[in-house]
Please model this.
Amino acid sequence: MRTPALLCLAASFLVAGAPFRQDEVPPPRPLLPIPTGRQLDWQRKEMAMFLHFGVNTFSGREWGTGDEDPNSFNPSRLDAAQWARVARETGFRTLILTAKHHDGFAIWPSRYTEHTVKNASWGNGRGDVVRELAEAARAEGLDLGLYLSPWDRHEPSYGDERAYNEFYIGQLRELLTEYGPLAEVWFDGAKGPEAVDMDYDFAAYWSLVRQLQPGAVIFSDEGPDVRWIGNEHGFAGATNWSTIDRSRVEVGNAEADYLNSGDPEGSDWVPGECDVSIRRGWFWHEDEEPKSLDVLLDIYFKSVGRNCVLLLNVPPDREGRLDPADVERLYELRAALDAIFATDLAAIGRAAASSVRGGSAGYEASHVLDGDLETYWATDDSVTRATLEVDLGARATFNVVRIQEPIQLGQRVSAYRIEVEQDDGWETVSSGTTIGHKKLDRIETVTARRIRLIIDEVRAHPLIAELGLHLHRGR
Model:
């Protein structure tokens, strides 16, 4: 026989502690693989700024030779605070600095080499660019990332696999322990044809990052957290899965098309990062100009708008400041993006769907208009084709459609269409394959009251977090 105390305990559990009542609709199961917390946070930041700065800035080279005089590194007005302020004001959330490029010159006072700022007359040998940027980023509320090139054309031990990997890990440890929290650590497998053949111990490098900076995402061709998108143009594939099979990717010798589109059957969640420079080169050259606003907008739509993060390189000049022409273009880009996305024409509309999970209000179509990526419209498990319709309440003019999946539960949609209602019926204005964190479809300018998203193919029953409509007046 149950005691009164046990009965009271059971009753209180049913009221306050039970996760579901028997008549409640269970939440959708995640479609594996899914992102880690650090990957999800990284993706939602959407834009990061790369800063290529070093002896190449002063030699005019893209790839230094390793025999540079440390005194050649001499920025007369180094202003990392300007870099960080401009980045924050133009919408970038992370700054990634080339702490060491292929020339091997360390722009922090590394104890493992003499090819470093401690042997430069700049700052009387006490300069530290990494520290200045770390402090500036923190002051602006930005995250810091660092790139340490594995290829080192100066280091004598390069080519002796064990000795060099130990040298490299020593430098990496300095960067991971002396500059506060890092959000991203950037690796590549670049080697020139003259480089001595040796293997970089990426497994050890990544283990050290996990040990010392567990909150940082790791970038390389294969991840393990963030993958290269297969080109340096800033363009992801029109089909872009956040999943790949990492065993198919070799750092420094990866299949570009595979990285560009991802793999719907991939066992690893490794979303893409699109790296591209605002100029022709990666380092500052006085005879180069920034890309036009139209080109940068195209890059944005083909990176952030194709389920990626945009990593835009903005190289400081020989004074140690961002070039005024580049700064002007960044503010133009920010103003253009704000003009497009500040207003969501769908936000005041009413949404309806062909299927709602268990008929539950917790998963109804209205969630796609609430501006919250944690809520979403969901269908029943058996649904493989569904329609979501939005009535705007009045005719509106738009030419950008924004669709977002709740990627915390995986990536599902593999084919969809956008239709608008016209006098003679429904007209298809766009179609695509993958969606992911954010898909931005640019369409011909259209005026309509009703729009619908038709999901034709999925890997699991569809979930949609957001559907937005915007007007790009410059088109």
User: Anything to note?
Assistant: The chain has a mean pLDDT of 94. The longest strand covers residues 439-458. The domain at 37-341 is CATH 3.20.20.80 (TIM Barrel).
